[in-house]
Design goal:
Blueprint: H1 16-35, H2 37-43, H3 59-72, H4 77-86, H5 88-93, H6 101-112, H7 116-130, H8 159-166
Length: 167
Amino acid sequence: MSYFTIKRSFFLVSSSRCDEEFQKIDKFMELLEKFGVGKIIESVKSNEIQCKGRKGYYKYNLFAMIIYCFAKFKASLRDIEDKCVFDLRVLYIMEGNIPDHSVIGKFINQFIVPYQYEIFTTITKQIIKDFNLKIDDIFVDGTKLEANANKYKFVWKPTKFHAKLDI
């Protein structure tokens, strides 16, 4: 079953630059489909009560939008809500729907936080498998690979330390 697909068409500005970005997003959605994250989301028992009113958001697109926003932008709920309104890429993922920050927060707490390790490991294993990455490399010179690294993050160990490691 295909979970991460754009199902309906809606009006967006068409240009070559936008088409390139939309193709990248389609590739991102295909990767999410390939990773098998949709099965994890489907297995979550939601406690939504079926009642009259506005139809809910498609949970697979909501998941893809949250992951995309965490990867590209700031990760606060209000910023993600603003991206849903003003960013065409996020609007394309959500198929024109604009969720509120409270909806995004509830979705994160219900679907992502309890299954974060399972989601992360499935995505990581699939990336390692698809791109033939070798994860056997270890940096023993004190290099710290961090998201917010600066020039003061490098730690140099004395040569005695390296000599002890070779024994």
